[in-house]
Design a protein that fits this description.
There is one protein chain. By secondary structure, this protein is an alpha+beta fold. The protein folds into 3 domains: 18-151, Nucleoside Triphosphate Pyrophosphohydrolase; 159-241, Winged helix-like DNA-binding domain superfamily/Winged helix DNA-binding domain (Arc Repressor Mutant, subunit A, Orthogonal Bundle); 269-380, Aspartate Aminotransferase, domain 1. The chain is built from 9 helices and 16 strands. The strands form 3 sheets. Strands 1, 2, 3, 4, 5, 6 and 7 form a 7-stranded mixed β-sheet that branches. A 6-stranded antiparallel β-sheet has the order 11-12-13-14-16-15. It has a 3-stranded antiparallel β-sheet with strand order 8-10-9. Strand 13 and strand 14 form a beta hairpin. The longest helix is centred in the middle third of the chain and has 18 residues, at 141-158. The chain is globular, with a radius of gyration of 23 Å. The chain starts with 18 loop residues before the first strand and ends with a helix.
Length: 381
Amino acid sequence: MPVHRDRSDRTLADYSRPSVAVDTAVLVVDVRNAALSVVQHRRADGGAHGGEWALPGTFLHEGETLADAVLRSLRTKVGLRGTRPQQLHVFDDPARDDRGWVLSVAHVDLVLVEDVDPVLASRRDLRVVPVDDVAGLPFGQDEIVRLAVERARLDYALQPDPGMLLGETFTLKGLQALHDAVAPRPGPGEVRPSIDTFRRYMVGKGLIRPTGQLAPKELRSGGMGKPAELYARSTDPRDPTEVLGVRPVRKDRNRAERPVDDAVPARSFGELTGHNVNTHLQSLVDDVGARVPLTLTVMPHYVAVRPVGEERVAAYVKPLTISVGLDPDDAIAVTREHPEFRLERTSAATHHVHVPMGSLADSGVRRAAMDALERALARIG
């Protein structure tokens, strides 16, 4: 007679197990040209997707940690050493890999272009591609790049230099140039924040502090000019809730004392300070927020709009433009119907629709922009 095992009698051998892979989006920061790219390598012929461009990755070996596997893949596939990759997301769609059931633990790594150039010069199987031009990578890796870019931009909006690319001290101009390279590119009619605006954000929120030292000659523009002041990262920001774009909960004196959260998400532009978004765009977002729960966060270059509880950004609100992330087919259809919207083919998974403030005077256009924002929030909410 067959033996029926109780669930408590099962061992690991009784369960199917997927293969585990690691894939890394190595984001290359070109400070001089204010550009962000990603490293790709050509897969070896004869294997799955042989000869195609992909992110560096590998399967986890027995007894190996994920961190060790990532460093091994970067060393063998790309020739990079001494980097600091961070875990990003686990992709668990059973159909993502046509070879079988594979879990991919995605990572993100930021490096300066000067650290990658020597490797690129010696390898014909490597290339860097602007992050906005990435499309068609195997194993669903377009989505890995998109998430990696969003994580990097969010991290750099909330911190001076989380990737530690500049060293312990740096000039304000050098830090701003680094942020400009990571941040989204300005749309039509938009400009980067001025150095004074950037200083007010970084110093005013306690993210960096002056050291009282001056930059050495080699850090000055062309070795000439007035010495610039050196800054360092602050270890104790004065108001971390304001850095995150949230405000403390205020106690209601008319009610009994009760425990409250330390902070709540900003749900409308009326709760935010330190931004210069046009009032027409503020009104559009606030009208959507009255129906769809959302979170607003002030960044140096934009205000991020996310569904409540989500890290992924649905839209970037700049001073004169709102950029909404949609499914590619949806984005193409919207821009065909409304020529005043600009289409940006960000990746195979997401296209951005840029809505200029000046077009919102038309009620039909404003309604279309609000609908697009609601769909973007629902898409990742």
